[in-house]
């Protein structure tokens, strides 16, 4: 993904379609949620339909306006993820067959491990930006007294279908390829081999993969230009100490429970 790649064409908002709820709208369009409201951040695979597993993270709204959605995934949040019946994860499967077993995945209830994540989905762009902090050993990531000791680690750029909103749900689809931008600005491309495997195993087409790579170049250029939300103000952000962790809704379902 060289820096000199031409970027005359706009980003491809949906290299492959993701099934949204009927009547869903794009981010940046009112009505907006208030700070502190709960929102469900949903990832749905290519060809997803109701009843198939998805990733669902209950999150707390930080900001929701014309620029996009900013939300906080708190440490220890109970969420829904896609696993195999034995509890193993996609990355436990060898690359040569990783996308051949999609139909075998089931819905699992799991717990987010580690420090919290600030996720920012800019309106009408096919990626979200995740901010990560290092929490010193011995400090609990959910302890507000430790906030001043957090150290910003970097930005994870998750390439994905442009979000569609319906009430308190925001729906997108993961595009496999990602960027990890270290705090010093070093850009690393992640999972390029996995994107190639996805095409080889029928998860997508070569044309869709090239659109995803094109979007990755756009995201990299956006960071280099200092576009929102790649600004230092978010690296200094901290969650409201009064916030509690949102819960999954009562109507959510899962096949296996991996919450200890």
TrEMBL record:
<dbReference type="InterPro" id="IPR050212">
    <property type="entry name" value="Ntdp-like"/>
</dbReference>
<dbReference type="InterPro" id="IPR007295">
    <property type="entry name" value="DUF402"/>
</dbReference>
<dbReference type="Pfam" id="PF04167">
    <property type="entry name" value="DUF402"/>
</dbReference>
<keyword id="KW-0378">Hydrolase</keyword>
<dbReference type="InterPro" id="IPR035930">
    <property type="entry name" value="FomD-like_sf"/>
</dbReference>
<protein>
    <recommendedName>
        <fullName>DUF402 domain-containing protein</fullName>
    </recommendedName>
</protein>
<feature type="domain" description="DUF402">
    <location>
        <begin position="91"/>
        <end position="227"/>
    </location>
</feature>
């Amino acid at each position: 993904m060289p820096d000199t790649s031409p970027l005359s064409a706009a980003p491809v908002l949906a290299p492959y379609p993701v099934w949204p709820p009927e009547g869903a709208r794009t981010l940046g369009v009112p009505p907006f949620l208030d700070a502190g409201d709960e929102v469900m951040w949903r990832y749905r695979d290519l060809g997803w339909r109701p009843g198939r597993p998805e990733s669902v993270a209950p999150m707390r709204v930080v900001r929701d306006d014309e620029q996009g959605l900013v939300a906080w995934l708190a440490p220890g949040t109970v969420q829904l993820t896609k696993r195999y019946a034995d509890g193993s994860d996609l990355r436990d499967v060898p690359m040569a067959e990783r996308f051949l077993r999609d139909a075998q995945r089931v819905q699992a209830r799991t717990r987010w491990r580690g420090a919290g994540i600030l996720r920012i989905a800019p309106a009408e762009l096919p990626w979200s930006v995740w901010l990560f902090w290092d929490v010193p050993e011995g400090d609990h990531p959910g302890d507000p007294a430790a906030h001043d000791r957090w150290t910003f680690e970097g930005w994870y750029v998750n390439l994905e279908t442009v979000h569609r909103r319906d009430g308190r749900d925001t729906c997108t689809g993961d595009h496999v390829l990602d960027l990890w931008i270290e705090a010093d600005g070093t850009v690393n491309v992640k999972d390029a081999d996995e994107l190639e495997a996805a095409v080889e195993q029928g998860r997508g087409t070569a044309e869709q993969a090239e659109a995803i790579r094109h979007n990755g170049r756009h995201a990299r250029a956006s960071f280099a230009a200092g576009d929102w939300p790649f600004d230092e103000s978010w690296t200094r952000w901290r969650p409201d100490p009064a916030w509690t962790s949102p819960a999954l809704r009562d109507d959510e379902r899962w096949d296996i429970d991996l919450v200890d």
